[in-house]
Amino acid sequence: MGQIKVSSTNFENKKIMNDACPEVYAASILGTQWTLAICSYLVLGKHRFSELRKKIPGITERMLTLKLRELEQQKIVKRTVYAEVPLRVEYELTKIGKDLEPLIRQLETWGKKHKKLMGG
Fold first, then answer.
1. What does pTM read for this prediction?
2. 41 contacts 53 by C-beta, under 8 angstroms
3. Phi and psi dihedrals of 18, rounded to 5?
4. Both ends of the chain: CA-CA distance in Å?
5. What single-letter DSSP state applies at residue 86?
6. If you count Cβ atoms within 10 Å of the first and of the last residue's Cβ in the chain, which end, N or C, has fewer?
7. What is the pLDDT of residues 15-63, one digit of tens each?
8. What domains can be seen in the chain, in order of their start residue?
9. Which residue stretches of 1-120 are H helix?
10. Residue 51: how many CA atoms within 13 Å on its side-chain side?
């Protein structure tokens, strides 16, 4: 039997859209509820891991860790480790992360308005 080559049209389409459309690229980064929630809290200032975990209902420790790592790799979040006992780690938005603030505020305003319109 011959080998079947599997390719993902969906993956290719996403890549093409990300390359062609900056809005789609931005949405692909912020597109998950967890990422947007983390950034929304970090807009308010530095937070420790445990503080973020308490403020974001339903997020698991593992998911928060994964999302914070992704945001660090994307240069949106900065992680600072303080050599104290016990160890203290804080997360904050980088300069490019802080540029998200107007967008996050606009999404908040739109979300409240739409939720009210929908009877929520």
1. 0.79
2. no
3. -60, -40
4. 56
5. S
6. N
7. 776 676 887 778 877 878 899 999 999 999 999 999 999 999 999 999 9
8. 13-117 (1.10.10.10)
9. 9-20, 22-30, 33-42, 49-55, 61-73, 95-98, 101-117
10. 12
